[in-house]
Amino acid sequence: MTASVWMVDGRQEVGYGVALVDAHASGVSRQPAWYNTVLAGAESDAVILKGVRIRGYEILRPEAALGSESAVLQVVGMNWFLVMITAAYVGMACQLVSELVAGKYANDRPANHTPGRLAASVRGCGVLIESLAAELDSASVEPAHMQQRLLDARAAVESVLKVLGAETPDCMNGAQFIGTSRLSYLREAISGLTFHPPSRDERFVSGGMEI
Questions:
Q1: 107 or 18, which is more confident?
Q2: According to the model, what pLDDT value does residue 110 have?
């Protein structure tokens, strides 16, 4: 496997590198990582590196120009990750609201047209992510600026999903809550977006607001 590393000489950073790590090296171990039943579809284990020695010839050192290009590629890669992971959770939310609107589990008297209102909000999230994905694909926006826009969009989607999770019970009745775990599962699943990287501290630090 590979790992991106910053190389240092004493206390000074000297550049970016890619470490090649032998999966069978001493200090490499694996352990289960996904214990929440909502994450049952995640089949990978956590890979733990503890005291793993990397020899000089196991580190790829790009030339300075290539190093800067690699840094840009990492930003672009994170941008696509943000698009895909946010879109995945919007898809889960779409499944939840589609069942609410269809009345499969609907309350006889949903409060304030709640299912339709929630469905419109989730559709708006889909339009937002699709638009940003097209913009990202066109490469018309500088990658770092695009990343901030995607992080802002993700925060907006998270806010919609929190409202959806909170108001889903308004669309159900007691018998449906007791008789099926389907909507409870979906309601819990959409909360996972909050925990994906980058961390909330990194996401919400901003030097100002651009209108």
A1: 18
A2: 53
Buried b (16+ CB within 10 A) or exposed e, 100-137: bbeeebbbeebeeebbeebbebbeebeebbeebbeebe
The stretch 114-142 carries a mean pLDDT of 94
| Most confident range, picked from 25-39, 93-107, 153-167, 192-206 | 153-167
Judge contact between 171 and 100, C-beta under 8 A: yes
Give the global pTM.
0.78
Q: Is 16 helix (H, G, I), strand (E, B) or coil?
A: strand
Decide if 68 contacts 16 (C-beta within 8 A).
no
38 by Cβ neighbours in 10 Å (0-12 / 13-18 / 19+) ranks as: middle
Beta bridge partners of 7: 15
Give dist(CA 73, CA 164) in Å, integer: 35
Q: How distant, in Å, are the alpha carbons of 3, 16, 60, 182 from that of 63?
A: 17, 9, 10, 53
Mean pLDDT of the chain: 84
Largest CA distance in the chain: 69
Query: If we measure between CA atoms, which residue out of 187, 130, 176 comes closest to residue 153?
Result: 130
d(CA 19, CA 1): 8
Q: Is the pLDDT of residue 208 over 50?
A: no
Backbone phi, psi, residue 17, to 5°: -145, 170
Distance CA 35, CA 110 (A): 34
Q: How far is CA 22 from CA 61, 62, 204, 209, in A?
A: 18, 20, 36, 45
